[in-house]
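Render this sequence as a predicted structure.
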Amino acid sequence: MSNSPSNDSDVSFIRALAELLRENDLTELTVKREFGENDSLNVTVSRQTIAVAAQSAPPPPSAPAPAPAAAAAPAASADADPATLPGAVNSPMVGTAYLQGEPGADPFVSVGKVVKEGETVLIIEAMKTMNQIPAPRSGTVKRVFVEDGTPVEYGAPLMIIE
């Protein structure tokens, strides 16, 4: 800090800026206060934020299923990892999951749809490449864990096919 009139007033000013930051849900605030020709106070107040969009953890198993077939989901404990459930289809790569071939098109699968082994169930975009993800087995789609356009991690559960 500079040789401002009072360090106590500088501290009060910074506290007021921090409160303003919190009250208005801001991440950073920069202010320059001029006291005279060669006397000023430059203050930057910031706080760390967590980018939720960057996290790609699947919804917790206790979250309601996006479709009414939740009752048809495999009987497992509420704290079971969806990736370990019988019939789980896990992501083979990191990328962005798309449930349809192009915007506005019908989704590849939906809860209750019967799929054949090798049939495309979704696409994962990785490094500008669209990778078709085939059904590893024939069966009925019981649950879909991802939403269209969401990021996925390697091994993350995508859906249940039984």
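Summary. The beta strands are 28-36, 39-46, 88-90, 95-98, 114-115, 120-126, 129-134, 139-144, 150-152, 157-161. The mean pLDDT is 77.
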